[in-house]
Amino acid sequence: MVTSRIAGFYNLPLGERLDRLAEAAELSPEELASFRTLNGLGDEQADHMVENAVGTFGLPLGIGLNFVVNGREVLIPMAIEEPSVVAGASFMAKLVRSGGGFTAITSAPEMIGQMQVLEGKDLMAASLRLLEHKAELLAEADGVDPLLKKFGGGARDLEVRIIEESPIGPFIVVHLIYDVRDAMGANAVNTACEKLAPQIERITGGRVHLRILSNLADQRLAKVSCSVLLKELAFTNADGRTFTGEQVRDGIIEAWAFAAADPYRATTHNKGIMNGVDAVVIATGNDWRAIEAGAHAYAARDGRYTSLSTWGRDGDGNLTGELEMPMAIGIVGGATKVHPAAKAALKLMGVKTASELAGIIASVGLAQNLAALRALATEGIQRGHMTLHARQVAIAAGATGDLIEKVAAQMVIEKVVRIDRAEEIIKSLKDM
Ligand code: MEV
Q1: How far is it, in rounded angstroms, from Cα 400 to Cα 423?
Q2: 121 is known as an active-site residue
Q3: CB within 8 A of 413, min separation 6: which ones?
Q4: Separation CA 184–CA 189 (nearest Å)
Q5: Which range is most confident: 118-127, 233-242, 250-259?
Q6: Residues 260 and 312: beta-carbon distance below 8 Å
Q7: Atom of ligand 1 nearest to the CA of 272
Q8: Each residue of 175-192: pLDDT tens digit?
Q9: What share of the chain in percent tops pLDDT 90?
Q10: Residues with Cβ within 6 A of ligand 1?
Q11: Backbone angles phi, psi at 113, to 5 degrees
Q12: Cα separation of 205 and 200, whole Å?
């Protein structure tokens, strides 16, 4: 049985960590090997994926531990260069699991395709005519992807909007709502929009200009919640400073209130959420720019940019958190099916549907948000970041092998984590 609790994982050498993954999830040696850069995405695949390929670009792949999502233990692959993210998410998932883990729900996987209708005459009358022809337009759009149809997807609805004010004056926008099941959906939706365009032109007498998916996937949402027991929040830091559960809980709620009220803070708060979200989106070969665009637009949906998450307390005084955001990801098609490491990542998580993956990704986002708020609301972000950051600075300054830890440790003691200091320490250690 898969467990996401692997004690002492971080202390193991990299090869042994892979062995532990093999034990925890049934990954073949080839699948495990695909997590190593040289065996993952090769030059040949890269050459087929983009124009003018000259190679591949690596990122560290870490495993988020301790996650329980909808009662299921999940090992989370996270591709990210920022040192503290995997550790932070894993630690918070550990706190959350004693409160029952993460509970995720998702809406139907419905994407929006947009068609911009220009040069129409009577926009209101044209809009009504479009609605009268809704059934036939939906039937037409429904036929574009037989495979999606077979799995229960297809065209669901047609909405007509009039944009009254724009730099080129008023025009009609048609939204095609399309259930894309386990796909990200861009291809199906774009094809359907292009297919409908001539019919829409005939009905409206206008000219269909753009035909493209909207990344504001506000009908394809993932919502996750968690509760952290008060006793899990209390801690004493390395300086012997003690924080009670109440202090940490209230500090987190105050920190969230800042993001809820102020766009400058909300941007950074949401960036912390995206640290977790993007890491899994990238590891699974999904389009993280689409997720980023959708997340930030959704955060501004009421006209003012705000926090994507909410933190509060329940009747027993425990900390409660919630995150709702668009989640246009897929598990079929695109890089998810071409990239060997992305395929292995999906298998590691044991996800069977895009909706399940969406719930897991949102859980990691909420965990990461909690990690940042807990640190910010107590001892500050730098202490926890410092050791991890120091290693990266040591490497950047040219340290290799054992020297990395030695240089990093020295900088942490001195509380000076800078490349020039790292270079000096490397020189002094080498001269010794
Ligand atoms: C850093 O990558 C993310 C944080 O700034 C998020 C936050 O401030 O909530 C720590």
Answers
A1: 12
A2: no
A3: none
A4: 10
A5: 250-259
A6: no
A7: 6
A8: 999 999 999 999 999 999
A9: 72
A10: 82, 268-269, 271-272, 275, 372, 376, 381
A11: -105, 140
A12: 8
In one letter, which amino acid is 350?
G
Give the pair of three-digit tokens for residue 217: 């996937």
* H-assigned helices in 170-216: 186-204
pLDDT bin (cut points 50, 70, 90) of residue 38 is: low
Q: Residue 55: exposed, middle, or buried by beta-carbon count in 10 A (0-12, 13-18, 19+)?
A: exposed
338 or 117: which carries more pLDDT confidence?
Answer: 117
Q: What is the CATH number of domain 384-431?
A: 1.10.8
- The DSSP secondary structure of 360-423, one letter per residue, reads HHHHHHHHHHHHHHHHHHTT-HHHHHHHHHHHHHHHHTT--THHHHHHHHHHHHHT---HHHHH
CA distance linking residue 93 with residue 54, whole number of Å: 39
Give the residue range(s) of CATH 3.90.770.10 domains in the chain: 9-107+220-379
Residue 76 — φ and ψ, nearest 5°? -110, 115
| List 31, 287, 324, 356, catalytic entry | 287
Predicted TM-score of the model (pTM) = 0.91
Residue-averaged pLDDT of the chain: 93
> Best mutation site among 252, 269, 270, 370 for ligand 1, i.e. most ligand atoms within 8 A of its Cβ?
269
262 or 414: which leads in pLDDT: 262
Specify the pLDDT at position 75.
Answer: 97
Active site residue 385: yes
User: For residue range 403-426, what is the model confidence (pLDDT) as tens digits?
Assistant: 988 898 888 888 888 899 999 999
Name the CATH topology of 9-107+220-379: 3.90.770
Give the type of residue at 352. K
Helices (H), 206-353: 230-233, 245-261, 263-283, 288-299, 335-338, 340-349
Give the residue-averaged pLDDT of 351-359.
96
The CATH class for the domain spanning 110-214 reads: alpha beta
Active-site entry in 134, 149, 195, 271: 271
Distance 2 CA to ligand 1 centre (A): 31
Q: Which of 72-86, 337-351, 390-404 has the highest mean pLDDT?
A: 72-86
CA–CA distance, 249 with 226 (Å, rounded to integer): 13
Give the list of residues 6+ apart from residue 14 with CB closer than 8 angstroms, or none: none
- CA 108 to CA 353: how far, in whole Å? 12
Catalytic residue status for 140: no
Q: Counting atoms of ligand 1 from 1, which one is nearest the CA of 381? A: 10
Ligand 1, residue 269: give the atom nearest the CA.
9
What distance in Å separates the CA atoms of residue 404 and residue 395, rounded to the nearest whole number? 6
* CATH 3.30.70.420 segments of the chain: 110-214
